[in-house]
Amino acid sequence: MFESMRPIPSLLSAAVILTGLVLVATLVIRAVPRAVVRTGVSTQGGNVVNSVVNKVIPNGPARRRQAALRRIAESGTYVGSMLAAQDSVLRRWPERMNRPLRIYMPRGRDVPGWSDGMDNAVQAAFYRWERVPDVPMRFEFVRDTAGAEVRVRWIREFSGQRTGQADIVWNRDGWIVRGTLTLAVRSPGGHGLSEDAVHTVALHEIGHLLGLGHSNDPGDVMHATTDIRDLTVRDRNSARLLYALEPGNLKGR
Ligand SMILES: [Zn+2]
Predict the structure, then answer these.
(1) How many A from CA of 84 to the centre of ligand 1?
(2) Mind listing the pLDDT tens digit for each residue in 25-34?
(3) What's the 201 CA to ligand 1 centre distance in angstroms?
(4) pLDDT, tens digit (0-9, with 9 covering 90-100), for 106-135
(5) Measuring CA to CA, which of 59, 66, 105, 221 is 20 to 30 A from 145?
(6) Separation of 166 CA from ligand 1 center, angstroms?
(7) Residues 6+ apart with CB under 8 A from 28
(8) What structural domains does the chain harbor?
(9) How far is 201 from 226, CA to CA, in rounded Å?
(10) Cα separation of 140 and 251, whole Å?
């Protein structure tokens, strides 16, 4: 489990590098006895321009920040522990009810071990998140990369201990602007993943895509190690709370 963030490459030049960071979150899933699948997660990040970002991210009025922090503290969600792990910066997409987030997900026919069922498992995971009340996100699968805001790509397996990875880019106000999900069809040990396992990995990585960090409760999909197959009440409530708050830096000056 490690965290790293790096400046946005290419799209933003050095002059505007202060406006965004990339979060790389990775997920490992591995088989354990009795064919139970467990997930382990590595989140990679590190704030290369941390000191500068803290100056350029506008802090909202202190009273509003404190109200948000109080609400988080009283919520019973994992948004609080998540904030601590990401330098007090909340990140999320703007509401996308009327203009669905455009997802480009090419089929993985050239990846040995890929199946249509895996494709379906990932789409089902997106639609599962869509059904969470008060998370104002809708998804649309598009046929080409033009205009796509999220790309899903399939690989045979990762070289390290992981089976999934989410990369997101956000601006200086904490609004996420694009993302990439990389999903493997085999475990690091070389075993083919079941469609259920791919679904679990996708649920977890889409959580990161939406701006969630890790839960500290092993019973949640967003915990670093879990075999949970569906979003829990805490997963759903954490996402609802995240989308009820303004993104940005909640740390005072
Ligand atoms: Zn993760």
Answers:
(1) 15
(2) 556 553 322 2
(3) 9
(4) 999 999 999 999 999 999 999 999 999 999
(5) 221
(6) 8
(7) 39, 40, 41, 42, 161, 162, 163, 188
(8) 5-249 (3.40.390.10)
(9) 10
(10) 35
The CA 129 to ligand 1 mean position distance, Å, reads: 16
Give, in order, the Cα–Cα distances in Å from 183 to each of 38, 53, 122.
16, 30, 9
DSSP letter string, 166-212? EEEEE-TTSBEEEEEEEEESB-TTSPBPPHHHHHHHHHHHHHHHTT-
Cβ–Cβ < 8 Å for 220, 78 = yes
Rounded CA-CA distance 160/189 in Å is 10
How deeply is 131 buried, as exposed, middle or buried, from its count of CB atoms within 10 A (0-12, 13-18, 19+)? exposed
Q: Where are the alpha helices (DSSP H) in the chain?
A: 50-56, 62-73, 79-85, 116-130, 195-209, 233-242
The Cα–Cα gap between 236 and 145 comes to 30
- For the stretch 131-134, contacts whose Cβ atoms lie closer than 8 Å and that sit 24 or more positions apart, written own/partner, are 132/231, 132/236, 132/239, 132/240, 133/236, 133/240, 134/240, 134/243, 134/244
Distance 26 CA to ligand 1 centre (A): 6
Q: At what angle do helices 195-209 and 116-130 cross, to 10 degrees?
A: 40
Question: What spacing in Å lies between the alpha carbon of 180 and ligand 1's midpoint?
Answer: 14
Shortest CA distance to 184 belongs to which of 113, 102, 109, 103?
113
pLDDT of residue 60: 53
CA distance 204 to 219: 13
